[in-house]
């Protein structure tokens, strides 16, 4: 981690108007790593906080990264560029915001683990079944070019019927 704190305090960032900017290695995110081909690459993090209503602090920012994922069609690895906009909320455990479904952190000490937070956001943003972009998947190209040449079962049946019908 280059210059990034391990934890951040949303309330303090909001009070001081500070911004967190830096890179986190993908290899530091073991849960995200499970969904990837390998743990190479870094995530560029930009975060800032602002006071919200009822003691809730909003966390805003974005993550920019390129993750090495596996295509679920051909199982080949490819680079998936991701840009994730962050709009989350943090509230201390003493506050129970009713109906605030998007409040994700309720740490007693109001500290948020930075890598864990970034990891959660990336897991949510990652497609469930990553696929090569259109025209780049060898399996899709193979079946597309072969399909017209193959005889369909209906064509075979038609031929069979014609054959039986002729004297
Ligand atoms: Zn593929």
Written account of the structure:
- By secondary structure, the chain is an alpha+beta fold.
- It is built from 5 helices and 7 strands; from the N terminus they run βαβαβββββααα.
- The strands form 2 sheets. The protein has a 5-stranded mixed beta sheet with strand order 2-3-4-5-6.
- β4 and β5 form a beta hairpin.
- It starts with 6 loop residues before the first strand and ends with a helix.
Question: Uncertain segments of ≥5 residues (pLDDT<50)?
Answer: none
Kindly estimate the percentage of residues that lie in beta strands according to DSSP: 25-35%
Query: What's the total helix number?
Result: 5
Q: Distance between the terminal alpha carbons, to the nearest Å?
A: 82 Å
Largest sheet: 5 strands, mixed
How many E-type strands? Answer: 7
What hetero molecules are bound to the protein chains?
zinc ion
Give me the side-by-side strand order of the main sheet. 2-3-4-5-6
Mean pLDDT equals 82
Q: What is the N-to-C order of secondary-structure elements (H for helix, E for strand)?
A: EHEHEEEEEHHH
The value of Rg in angstroms is 25 Å
From the spread of the alpha carbons, the general shape counts as elongated
Based on secondary structure, the structural category is alpha+beta
Helix content: 25-40%
């Amino acid at each position: 981690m280059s210059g990034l704190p391990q934890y951040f305090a949303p309330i303090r960032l909001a009070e001081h108007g500070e911004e967190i900017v830096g890179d986190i290695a993908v290899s530091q995110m073991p849960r995200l790593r499970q969904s990837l081909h390998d743990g190479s690459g870094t995530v560029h993090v930009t975060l800032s906080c602002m006071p919200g209503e009822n003691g809730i602090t909003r966390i805003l920012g974005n993550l920019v990264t390129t993750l090495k994922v596996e295509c679920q069609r051909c199982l080949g690895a490819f680079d998936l560029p991701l840009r994730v906009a962050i709009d989350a909320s943090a509230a201390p455990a003493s506050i129970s915001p009713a109906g605030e479904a998007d409040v994700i952190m309720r740490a007693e000490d109001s500290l948020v683990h930075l890598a864990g937070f970034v990891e959660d956001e990336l897991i949510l943003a990652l497609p469930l079944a990553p696929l090569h972009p259109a025209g780049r998947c060898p399996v899709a190209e193979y079946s597309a070019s072969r399909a017209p040449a193959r005889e369909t079962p209906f064509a075979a049946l038609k031929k069979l019927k014609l054959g039986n019908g002729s004297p």
